[in-house]
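User: Show me a protein chain along with its predicted structure.
Assistant: Here is one chain, sequence first, then structure tokens.
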Amino acid sequence: MKRAIMMNSEDNVATALEKLDEGSLIRVDSSSQENVKDVTAKQAISFGHKIAVIAIMKGDNVVKYGAVIGSASHNIEPGDYVHVHNVISNRMQMPEIWYR
């Protein structure tokens, strides 16, 4: 089973520890390597990129390492690829065309 890691119990995304194939079952582990949950990747996700572990509604915070890194520009389902196409950064202004 492919793996991702969720560093903080407050996180709603995990980081891919290898390339995740669309449709593959992903084991999400905590930083202590305990299984937190399993999700199915809805898209291919590159190593080091984020996968949603729970549903994140439009406008909700996206949390990684226990810190808010942005807000969802669209509803995000468990297993979705989380990146600039569906997250508005709280740190820098990005062109609005990215969020359509």
